[in-house]
Design goal:
Number of helices: 5
Order of helices and strands: HHHHH
Helix content: over 70%
Largest sheet: none
Structural class: mainly alpha
Strand content: under 5%
Shape: globular
C-alpha cells in the first residue's frame, strides 16, 4: 500500500513539473510549429529515468516507486508525443513529423544511455 502512495504522490509531482516545463519551453523556443515543450520534457525525462534506473540497480528501496514509476511516469509525455505526431500527419506536415519522431526516439535513447552511464560504474 505504501508503494501505491509513493506512485500517487510522485505522479502528481511529475505531472505538475511536465505542465510547467512544457509550457515554459514551448514559449521560450517556439520553432515553426515544432512541439518543443513536449520534446524538452521527453528528453529530460529519458535522461532522468536513465539516471534513476542505474541508481536503483545498486540501491533497491521503495523510493524507486516514488521517483521512477511516479515522478517519471507523470512527467514523461509519450502519449502526448503520439497525439502530436498524429496531428502533424493529419495536417500534411510530413517533414516536421519525420524530424520530430526520429529526433525524439534517437535522442531519447541516447539520453537514457547517457543517464545510465553516469551512475552505472
Amino acid at each position: 500500500m505504501r508503494n501505491l502512495i509513493y506512485i500517487f504522490l510522485g505522479g502528481g509531482l511529475g505531472s505538475v513539473a511536465r505542465f510547467m516545463i512544457s509550457n515554459y519551453s514551448q514559449k521560450l523556443w517556439n520553432i515553426d510549429g515544432f512541439p518543443m515543450g513536449t520534446f524538452v520534457v521527453n528528453m529530460t525525462g529519458c535522461f532522468l529515468i536513465g539516471i534513476l534506473s542505474a541508481y536503483f540497480l545498486k540501491v533497491d528501496n521503495s523510493l524507486r516507486y516514488l521517483l521512477i514509476t511516479g515522478v517519471c511516469g507523470g512527467y514523461t509525455t509519450f502519449s502526448t508525443f503520439s497525439a502530436e505526431n498524429y496531428s502533424l500527419w493529419q495536417n500534411g506536415n510530413y517533414g516536421m513529423l519525420i524530424l520530430y519522431a526520429l529526433s525524439s526516439l534517437i535522442l531519447g535513447l541516447i539520453m537514457v544511455f547517457l543517464g545510465f552511464q553516469m551512475l552505472k560504474s
